[in-house]
């Protein structure tokens, strides 16, 4: 009974779809009527072939299992044009973020840089360490040299609570 | 007035010129900045890993701001400003997510004050300080200078969470530049994205996006490009050479922060504004100003 | 001794599916004064009604309690049945066991049955206190006011006038004709709009039964159905309608240029001019905001007066106030077009060659600013590529959620006209979400467009940009080919939707006509009563009730006329007697009731009795709606609301608590 994708033999996964819907809460994903505006203006379309309207349709029909393991969900530039202009407030950007979170939970391929950011935040509270910059006059400077104030790292309690927040799952 | 300031990561760890130029110009308008007690990330880079976690970091940043006891918070980075704005709305709308965040804050003994007002450099200078005061502070009008503006994406979109300017026809940064005596050049690519979000995972695409925009600005024969976000500056300034290589063009577009341009118009020493940290050919911009 | 008959309806399974109707009927029989208690499948059916009637006659019932669906459904039906059996219809009590019991408590049948018993007990208690009442008759003023002189107002007026009734037709612009007069051709027949409209416009002004008032607005409405007192303000034209021959010389000599509203500000006209090419009446009008003479006084300009051979220019003209009594009002005030500058990404207002569909219509019209030639506004040349973009401001949660209903057909028409006028020398693209061609001949019209080498792109663009030469370009993803296309056009036409008029809020307040969530005027029932408002005597016609095309407008307009005829033809109407009444002996003349009555239905009269002045309240029955505000506010209890007296209501409350049959909640 129901629906089946004849190319991949995939069936809709309504449970996961509904969990995604609950996660992004308030964004009217189900109201998308495929006007295509998001894709027409998508910054990542020309170079990376991201089609937000297609992603929304796949999620709406329940074909959510193929998306977290795809590369395409990592191509969004987060320019927010699709959120701004969607006439139904379906917000593809928020759906893509939810799919990325699902990819992490399922331990699918996640670009390195994101996981690195997490461990760096855990360690120092920020995603980068303080850099030395070479000026146009070939001088090397840092915060101290530029007399910029030092701001403390977060206290220990931060690490504990931060780890707790990472346990919040989509599914 | 006294206001708290949340710098985020990028400004504190590498985009020093933005911090320097902001710290230089704001006192002239009687604005005193108070740093937060801790330096943490706003959460934006980890949204893709765990959106709740990211929102929590933003809530934490807002709590740290509340604990300064000040009612205003300056957030100069576009992305930090967006992330904090979205989280502010999540908590304001009294969602279960928001409630969870408040509970976790409580575990560190942190309180959250909903009444804190958020500012970005654009609206702080345009709406709070006002164009008149900016004009009055100018001692070296930038006559004859033609610049292109790049407000960025996350500071004008999306309107529903409350942004600092109109999403389709942003004019505040343009007016701030005109207040310095300079001219603004309109161009169709004005609202295009710098690509910063993809720099770490899809470098070629990111550089291609930045390069295309720089190419367009170069074709306008503008004297420079003005930005208001450290991520955008990273792409257009620090990565200009790489961007040029990616799109097959020789790029020589001076790219500066608005506060650096403002500082120059106010007669502040270029070193104090961090202009030697800019990687793009700002010397040619400065030469035009001094001519 | 009161004899009460109780009838419990199954309503099929609507009530009986949840409530044990037999138990309720049996329970009712145990209550005092109940001489017969029955239950039946469908009480509203013929056998059901006959059952009640027979019992009234045979058992000499003097009260009837029917436990059934909402009184809003069948109260009238049962009252009529009771009256036919010889009992006063207002001695009937309806107890709602459907909306208030079976539908509200579908999953708790036992508790629902107990509640049903309680409600029946309450109904019986009240029925003992009901009093016989008589309907009153009011005469109906046999004339109609039609507000709005577009095709809707024109059609309604003609229908009513032809039926022999006088009509006041009030139009706020200087000419009747409305939006239809602005159109070039109409879909799906491509009739010339002016050709089919102007004969009707002339019929209107020539009709002996129609008083056409242009450049006029309704400023006040008082009264009630059948007896409305309306005030119409006729603003001065500064030109004598009887003398002006419409020659147009005045406009030729006038030095002042003003925006041309009829041509959607695509061009300018003079401070004195005739409103439009086919204006009816064909009389000039002076725009007092711009006219030098009217602004600066005697001695200034006056060239038009000098040039006018008919001596029709009257700078001294004053506004005229007209009072009229009418039996009913038809609202036909039309709609506006969405202002696309709200949708910044499309560049309307910033780029000259991005225009709205109504602007295209004026360009295409032979009597318009370009003489009917399709020209790009920026350089005045024939476009080589025209792109149409659908759903601008419609189907959009940021602006208007509804579909504008006409956008697709308008664009198809305009694309076909462009093809016919420019022939093969233009490329035409329509960017759409869905093509809605639902009416008679509409899909055939869509086929015709596709046959004319008009290309359809299944997708909308996100943003439009302008090149240095004023032409436009945009990217659009076509779902058919899965390609990202870039379209370069020298004319972009936006399918801007129909939206409620800006002044609809004022009109709705003036005439007590409500508005629906989409901002248009609210009909009494979306399916069964689309031609009238909830207020008796106020009817709706045309786009003011919701966006629609000409065929639907004309149909609705004739329908509204039929509804109005229903009201006017009998010369009188019956009013429900459920009104407030004042017991004069208890009235202290405090005027609290008069101050809070929302229907202005209470008048205070002062008489001299025994040498003393006494002020008393009196109810104007025809205006009273029986809302009960006065009754609850009256400090002395002098005001009684028929069938809703305090005693009746309190008796019901007592009856509710008479038995504790259900365990209370937490």
Molecular structure report:
The complex is a heterotrimer of chains A (171), B (291) and C (666). With 171 residues, chain A is an all-alpha fold. Chain A is 41% helix and 2% strand. Chain A is built from eight helices and two strands. In chain A, a hairpin with a 5-residue loop joins strand 1 and strand 2 (140-141). Chain A is elongated, with a radius of gyration of 20 Å. The model of chain A has no long low-confidence stretch (mean pLDDT 92). With 291 residues, chain B is of the alpha/beta class. Chain B has helices at 10-13, 16-25, 51-66, 78-92, 96-107, 121-129, 131-137, 172-178, 203-219, 230-238, 240-247, 258-265, 282-290; strands at 2-5, 32-35, 72-74, 117-119, 146-150, 183-184, 224-227, 255-257. In chain B, the strands form two sheets. Chain B has a four-stranded parallel β-sheet. A four-stranded parallel β-sheet of chain B has the order 6-5-7-8, with helices on both faces. Chain B is globular. The two termini of chain B are 36 Å apart. The model of chain B has no long low-confidence stretch (mean pLDDT 96). Chain C is an alpha/beta fold. In chain C, the strands form twelve sheets. Chain C has a five-stranded parallel β-sheet. In chain C, strands 20-27-21-22-23 form a five-stranded parallel β-sheet. Chain C has a four-stranded parallel β-sheet with strand order 2-1-3-4, with helices on both faces. The relative contact order of chain C is 0.11. Chains A and B meet through helix 5, helix 6, helix 7 and helix 8 of A and helix 1, helix 2, helix 3, helix 5 and helix 9 of B.
């Amino acid at each position: 009974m129901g629906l089946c994708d004849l190319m991949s033999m995939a069936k809709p996964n309504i449970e996961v779809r509904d969990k995604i819907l609950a996660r992004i809460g308030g964004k009217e994903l189900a109201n998308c009527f495929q006007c295509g505006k998001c894709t027409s203006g998508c910054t990542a379309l020309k170079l990376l072939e991201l089609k937000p309207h297609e992603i929304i349709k796949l999620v709406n029909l329940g074909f959510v299992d193929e998306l977290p393991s795809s590369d395409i969900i990592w191509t969004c530039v987060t320019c927010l044009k699709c959120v701004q202009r969607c006439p139904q407030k379906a917000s593809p950007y928020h759906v893509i973020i939810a799919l990325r979170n699902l990819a992490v939970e399922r331990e699918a391929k996640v670009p390195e840089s994101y996981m690195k950011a997490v461990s760096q935040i855990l360690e120092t509270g920020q995603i980068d360490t303080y850099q030395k910059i070479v000026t146009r006059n070939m001088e090397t400077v840092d915060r101290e040299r530029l007399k910029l104030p030092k701001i403390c790292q977060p206290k220990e309690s931060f690490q504990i609570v931060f780890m707790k927040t990472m346990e919040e799952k989509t599914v | 007035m006294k206001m708290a300031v949340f710098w985020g990561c990028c400004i504190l760890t590498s985009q020093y010129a933005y911090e320097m130029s902001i710290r230089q110009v704001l006192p002239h308008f009687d604005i005193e900045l108070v740093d937060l007690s801790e330096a943490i990330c706003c959460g934006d880079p980890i949204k893709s890993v765990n959106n709740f976690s990211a929102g929590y970091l933003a809530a934490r940043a807002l709590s740290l701001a509340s604990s300064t006891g000040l009612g205003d918070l300056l957030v100069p980075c576009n992305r930090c400003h967006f992330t904090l704005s979205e989280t502010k709305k999540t908590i304001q709308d009294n969602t279960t997510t928001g409630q969870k965040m408040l509970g976790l804050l409580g575990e560190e003994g942190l309180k959250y004050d909903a009444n804190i007002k958020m500012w970005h450099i654009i609206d702080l200078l345009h709406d709070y300080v006002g164009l008149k005061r900016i004009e009055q502070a100018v001692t070296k009008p930038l006559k004859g200078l033609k610049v292109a503006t790049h407000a960025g994406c996350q500071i004008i979109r999306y309107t529903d969470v409350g942004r600092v300017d109109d999403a389709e026809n942003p004019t505040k940064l343009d007016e701030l530049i005109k207040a310095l005596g300079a001219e603004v050049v309109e161009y169709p690519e004005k609202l295009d994205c710098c690509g910063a979000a993809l720099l770490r995972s899809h470098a070629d695409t990111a550089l291609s996006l930045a390069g295309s925009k720089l190419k367009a600005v170069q074709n306008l024969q503008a004297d420079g490009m003005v930005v208001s976000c450290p991520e955008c500056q990273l792409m257009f300034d620090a990565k200009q050479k790489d961007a040029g290589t990616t799109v097959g063009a020789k790029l020589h577009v001076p790219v500066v922060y608005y506060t650096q341009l403002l500082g120059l118009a106010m007669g502040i020493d270029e070193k104090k504004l961090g202009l030697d940290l800019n990687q793009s050919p700002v010397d040619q911009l400065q030469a035009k100003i001094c001519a | 001794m009161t004899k009460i008959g109780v009838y419990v309806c199954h309503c099929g399974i609507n009530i009986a599916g949840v409530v044990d109707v037999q138990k309720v009927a049996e329970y009712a029989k145990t209550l005092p004064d109940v001489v017969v208690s029955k239950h039946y499948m469908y009480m509203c059916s013929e056998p059901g009604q006959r059952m009640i009637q027979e019992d009234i006659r045979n058992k000499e019932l003097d009260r009837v309690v029917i436990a059934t669906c909402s009184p809003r459904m069948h109260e009238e039906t049962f009252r009529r049945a009771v009256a036919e059996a010889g009992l006063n219809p207002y001695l009937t009590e309806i107890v709602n066991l459907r909306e208030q019991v079976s539908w509200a408590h579908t999953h708790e049948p036992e508790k629902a049955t107990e509640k049903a018993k309680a409600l029946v007990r309450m109904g019986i208690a009240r029925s003992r206190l009901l009093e016989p009442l008589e309907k009153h008759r009011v005469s109906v003023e046999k004339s109609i006011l039609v507000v709005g002189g577009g095709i809707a107002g024109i059609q309604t007026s003609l229908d009513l006038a032809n039926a022999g009734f006088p009509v006041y037709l009030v139009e706020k612009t200087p000419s009747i004709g409305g939006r239809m007069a602005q159109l070039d051709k109409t879909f799906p027949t491509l009739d010339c709009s002016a050709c089919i409209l102007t004969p009707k416009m002339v019929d209107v002004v020539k009709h002996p039964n129609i008083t056409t008032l242009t450049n006029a607005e309704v400023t006040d409405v008082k009264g009630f159905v059948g007896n409305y007192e309306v005030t119409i303000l006729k603003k001065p034209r500064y030109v004598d309608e009887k003398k002006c021959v419409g020659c147009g010389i005045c406009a030729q000599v006038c030095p002042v240029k003003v925006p041309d509203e009829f041509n959607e500000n695509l061009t300018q006209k003079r401070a004195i001019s005739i409103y439009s090419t086919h204006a009816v009446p064909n009389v000039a009008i002076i725009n007092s905001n711009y006219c030098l003479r009217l602004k600066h006084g005697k001695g200034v300009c006056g060239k038009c007066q000098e040039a006018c051979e008919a001596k029709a220019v009257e700078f001294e003209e004053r506004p005229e106030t007209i009072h009229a009594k009418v039996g009913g009002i038809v609202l036909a005030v039309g709609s506006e077009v969405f202002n696309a500058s709200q949708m910044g990404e499309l560049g309307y207002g910033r780029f000259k060659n991005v225009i709205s569909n109504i602007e295209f219509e004026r360009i295409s019209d032979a009597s318009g600013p370009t003489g009917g030639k399709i020209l790009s506004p920026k350089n005045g040349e024939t476009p080589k590529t025209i792109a149409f973009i659908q759903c601008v401001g419609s189907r959009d949660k940021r602006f208007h959620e509804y579909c504008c209903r006409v956008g697709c057909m308008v664009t198809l028409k305009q694309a076909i006209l462009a093809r016919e006028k420019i022939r093969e020398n233009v490329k035409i693209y329509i960017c759409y979400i869905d093509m809605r061609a639902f009416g008679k001949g509409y899909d055939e019209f869509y086929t015709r467009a596709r046959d004319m080498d008009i290309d359809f792109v299944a997708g909308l663009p996100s943003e439009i940009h302008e090149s240095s030469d004023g032409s436009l370009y945009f990217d659009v993803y076509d779902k058919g080919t899965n390609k990202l296309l870039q379209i370069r056009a020298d004319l972009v036409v936006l399918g801007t939707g129909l939206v409620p008029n800006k002044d609809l809020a004022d009109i709705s307040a003036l005439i007590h006509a409500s508005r629906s969530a989409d901002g248009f005027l609210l009909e009494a029932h979306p399916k069964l009563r689309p031609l009238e408002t909830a207020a008796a005597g106020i009817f709706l016609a045309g786009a003011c009730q919701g966006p629609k095309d000409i065929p639907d407008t004309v149909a609705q307009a004739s329908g509204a006329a039929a509804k109005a005829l229903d009201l006017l033809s009998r010369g009188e109407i019956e009013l429900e007697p459920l009104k407030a009444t004042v017991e004069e002996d208890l009235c202290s003349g405090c005027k609290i009731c008069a101050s809070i009555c929302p229907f202005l239905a209470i008048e205070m009269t002062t008489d001299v009795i025994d040498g003393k002045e006494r002020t008393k309240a009196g109810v104007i029955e025809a205006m009273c709606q029986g809302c009960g505000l006065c009754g609850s506010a009256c400090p002395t209890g002098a005001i009684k609301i028929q069938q809703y007296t305090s005693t009746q209501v309190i008796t019901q409350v007592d009856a509710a608590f008479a038995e504790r049959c259900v365990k209370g909640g937490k």
